[in-house]
């Protein structure tokens, strides 16, 4: 017997279909298959038949004489798992085409047509409808995504202002003006051995002017602003989450961990049993991270070899060699990141399954942590190399550092590695958002539909007729399975890292993140409503481990931006020169101050250029960017005093910047309460009312008890027929003495 509500005809058809198929297997005997289901509703509204899950089920072999219960592990139960899934899976509602115009379903205000993806992007999401339709867990995701996108608006505005400030002051920047001045006629050392020739510093004019757009005093202010912005975002989300918990009646909700469905989880495993799985996890994750490092090193060798090959080519444009190498290397890194993301996701799930977590929540948290570590290392390893390692393990002319034989480590441009870091961050961020986040979400479902149409022998009209004849559960089965919210959260967490960690090198990152998220919200909405099976509604009080990851990234972002400003940009060397070494207190002479001298006769054998720039006279002295003693000094090519002064200033800036920003962040965190004032007052009033109600109940119980006691005393038969006994006392004598 199967009792289901108003939409029961859908389930009964599925039930009869499976029963008929299974009955055929036992038609030679007198046995039949019976199924008893027990449903548990996920909300107080028992009329909403889409919000239930399977609580338990029993399978019976029915015979004329007796019933035999079939255990969960038998093959017969495995055969009807599809039936159980179809019965218990929540369905998308069946929408009547002749419904009134005033009645609209969720996909209309949320994500039905293309106009809702673009023209209505400024409207708020129907969070209440999302919660009723999908449950609190999915509702919290869309609420968090909306808060994150809303908070990106001021960050994007400030980032655009910082970029416009760099554009407005590029013509007044003295170091770039000195580089672009052809009167200086500074000859620089070759960028590679043999194939590369000497080059004039004036050819780096374009790179120097472009670097000023991102390397200017305003970026320091923007880094401080983004650190405070991250704290404000976290506080704003905590307040929003608390308000939703109160509205959705989740303030006293304690999430109960369900037992894992797998039979392995029911077995108690000791630490000794789990040790091999833990060791496998650690070794595999370390190996995967080393694979990421190896791929980054391979891209480094690609840049070195391609640069030398292009310099040797007579048909290539020598002025565009550096831009060509940068662009192609960044694209290669992007392709590798996208491919490894999919591989790492599968490996993380396999490793988590090996550990056999006790609960579903534990399984999800471990899977999220492993996936985050692998994907974070995959996405940020090339960026970290460009920011902190490139150009610092080079050596000097005449004593360069070589790897893998004759590959000389690559140097930064004269304006620093900040421009290359900006290019890598821009291509990685835009590429992941455009290809992995948006194109995959749109293209893969359409590609699957196209493949199904190719395999089908029906034409378009026949497909429409077949689609009309299908039941709701059959239409939903065609849709893609719901794999959880972890991929959606992971996209945004990686984006949050790119927005906050290296924002000093790319102030336009919040703007691109904002534009992506405006489309991402609508694409996720359309995917959840139109292209995926409706997930089982699940309660959740918060976003779980994702909040801890966000908070950790916001703390690390302060340290990373401090090192980017100090060691990657020229902000500190410019300040040191202006206030310690400049004659007139200006930036005039800064470029010459940062260049050291090298005697071309000190080249190692076989490393001097083959074609020294086709000059009439070969230069005797060339320049390179470093703080070293000149060849005519008593200690030639040793680190100079200016190097140690700049290094001390850089380290001091890191310490001061980190502590000041951390102190300001903690102050903002302390200043803003986690619970909104009106919600706090309302909760306090409810507690007072509850206490008063309990007090009244206790007083009522006491009064009722007294009345019952008095009534019992008055109605007792002994009190009606007998007088109450008098207390015994000694007789009193009234006699007189005789």
From TrEMBL:
The gene is ano1a. Keywords: Membrane, Transmembrane, Transmembrane helix. Residues 727-738 have a biased composition (Basic residues). InterPro entries: Anoctamin, Anoctamin_TM. It is found in: Membrane. This is Anoctamin. The lineage of its organism: Eukaryota, Metazoa, Chordata, Craniata, Vertebrata. GO terms for cellular component: plasma membrane. It is a multi-pass membrane protein.
